[in-house]
Write a structure and sequence with these properties.
The protein is α/β, with parallel strands linked by helices. Helix content is 55%, strand content 8%. The chain contains 21 helices and seven strands. The chain has a five-stranded mixed sheet. Helix 13 links the parallel strand 6 and strand 7. It is flat, with a radius of gyration of 37 Å.
Length: 518
């Protein structure tokens, strides 16, 4: 880059450019752009990398545009709770196909009757003959004029018969049908135009309408305390599309409508969706999942969910705060849920890997051999990470990381200095789940260089926190120590595979397990 703004010189061909910025520089190195000269001395490897960068950027934009178009198209369609059903259940039967063919035939017949009705009522348009019979369009070539009537005010029978012959017959092949006038020649307003567009004044005012619409929607979000990420919800796009399709003059629903008939309507739709979900139980089988947790008020809640054909539904929740969570009690809850959904549908039961759940699962398989008990994979990995966190050397590294982060975040000036050098935040290790400690170690390692630069900078050395014997001096020795960072790197390297599998098991997407197997 040269001293002037947007002025730069190529270090390979020594060509000077005045303007264009980074994009112009990349085009100069890549070559193939008519408005930018190509660098003749650029290494081939660099040229290929820049061309690959342009190709990847273009492909990413196309994918984003295609995805947005698909989302907008799906949002504009009427809502349906059965869109995720299998193709077998949504395929039309023979009667539906016959009905579709009949409707198409009736529509075609109606169009032909409309054409004949217009011919009989108005007669043909007044056409003058063309340049002889060499045009190959029948007796004469029809040519539109400003008037459809003859000067005498009567319709010409000869032109009428020629016009009817020009339309041809639908029973003849397409090669034998002469090209003739369409229904629009008789009445331009008979059929809607395929290329109908808004008026030019609407297109000119479109940006102003968009500005007003965005301001109104933004005010609704702000003053109703609606999170901005709610705009990414597909129901938001569906609502906007429905409002545009309804047009002006349609009153929006009020609070009574939303909590009244609309709520009842959505409830009915969900009930129909759940009924179609239950109809798949005999075909695909059912998995019952048991998830127990303790809330902030120390209430013990046990949730039961069902899984079938890629869908998960909440079944019931039990407050077990006043119960003894032994194997007998857990087994009784499992059997109650199994009997409510139908024992013949249940394939397996998934629970935590706690001792009482494990004992209850083994008893369940003894009493009902056709049902399998499976421990939760995410809970098993979490228990492994907890055992790793109990190792003495690991606990020492966690303690040092807590000392560093606690000192930084307890002093405002040190925190501001850290943000200036690192350009962000660092995560603090926790004492509960060891998976969070992995995230904290990884965050510290990413900012290792910046932290060490901060503690050897002139600002830090001149501050009162760097005095000998203070907590700041102790933290400085820990950060500049090489042994702490080496042990932290070893821990992260050992835990990373388990953490990635834990994230895949806890996520709602289906992971490709082959990528985790080496």
């Amino acid at each position: 880059m040269l001293s002037a703004r947007h002025h730069w010189r190529c270090k390979w061909c020594n060509t000077k450019f005045k303007g264009g910025g980074v994009t112009r520089l990349k085009q100069h190195l890549a070559g193939g752009y008519p408005d930018v000269s190509m660098c003749r001395k650029c290494p081939q490897k660099v040229r290929q990398l820049i061309k690959k960068y342009f190709a990847d950027s273009k492909a990413a934009k196309e994918r984003a545009k295609q995805k947005k178009t698909e989302v907008d198209h799906r949002a504009a369609e009427p809502p349906s709770y059965h869109s995720r059903e299998s193709k077998e259940t949504s395929a039309p039967d023979d009667e539906a196909q016959i009905e579709t063919v009949i409707q198409a035939s009736l529509a075609d017949q109606y169009q032909q009757e409309e054409i004949a009705r217009y011919r009989e009522r108005f007669g043909p348009s007044y056409y003058e003959s063309g340049s002889g019979s060499a045009t190959g369009r029948g007796e004469f070539e029809l040519k539109r004029t400003t008037s459809v009537r003859e000067p005498g005010g009567r319709w010409s029978r000869r032109n009428m018969s020629s016009l009817l012959r020009a339309f041809g017959s639908r029973r003849r092949s397409s090669r034998d049908i002469p090209a003739g006038p369409s229904i629009q020649d008789l009445d331009p307003h008979a059929l809607p135009s395929k290329d109908s567009k808004q008026q030019r004044i609407d297109s000119m005012l479109k940006k102003y309408k968009k500005k007003d619409m965005w301001r109104a929607i933004g005010s609704w979000f702000y003053f109703s305390h609606i999170p901005a990420n709610a705009a990414a919800n597909p129901y938001y796009r569906s609502a906007i599309s429905a409002i545009k399709a309804a047009g002006q003059g349609v009153d929006p629903p009020g609070p009574k409508d939303i909590y009244g008939q609309l709520l009842d309507s959505n409830k009915e739709d969900l009930q129909r969706w759940i009924a179609s979900y239950k109809n798949k139980w005999p075909t695909y089988g059912l998995t019952v999942m048991c998830d127990g947790w303790t809330g902030p008020t120390r209430r013990s809640i046990i949730n039961f969910l069902t899984y079938c054909d890629g869908k998960i539904f909440f079944h019931k929740s039990i407050d077990a705060s006043d119960k003894m969570h032994d194997a007998t009690y857990i087994l009784g809850l499992m059997e109650e849920v199994i009997d409510s959904v139908g024992e013949q549908h249940v394939v397996q039961v998934i629970t935590d890997n706690g001792p009482q759940h494990k004992a209850a699962g083994e008893l369940l398989m003894e009493q009902r051999p056709q049902i399998y008990w499976t421990a939760c994979a995410a809970h098993c990995i979490d228990l492994i990470l907890m055992d790793i966190g109990k190792i003495c050397r690991v606990q020492q590294v966690v303690k040092i990381a807590q000392i560093i982060t606690r000192f930084i975040y307890n002093h405002t000036w040190v925190l501001s200095l850290m943000r200036m050098y690192t350009g962000g935040e660092i995560l603090r290790p926790d004492i509960t789940r060891f998976a969070t400690n992995y995230i904290a170690f990884d965050s510290l390692l990413q900012k290792k260089t910046a932290l060490r630069q901060m503690f050897v900078s002139a600002e830090w050395q001149e501050s009162r926190y760097a005095r000998a014997g203070t907590d700041g001096s102790h933290v400085e020795n820990l950060v500049t120590s090489q042994s702490f960072w080496q042990r932290a790197e070893k821990i992260v390297k050992a835990i990373k595979p388990l953490y990635e599998v834990l994230r895949a098991a806890d996520s709602e997407r289906y992971p490709r397990w082959a990528s985790y197997i080496t």
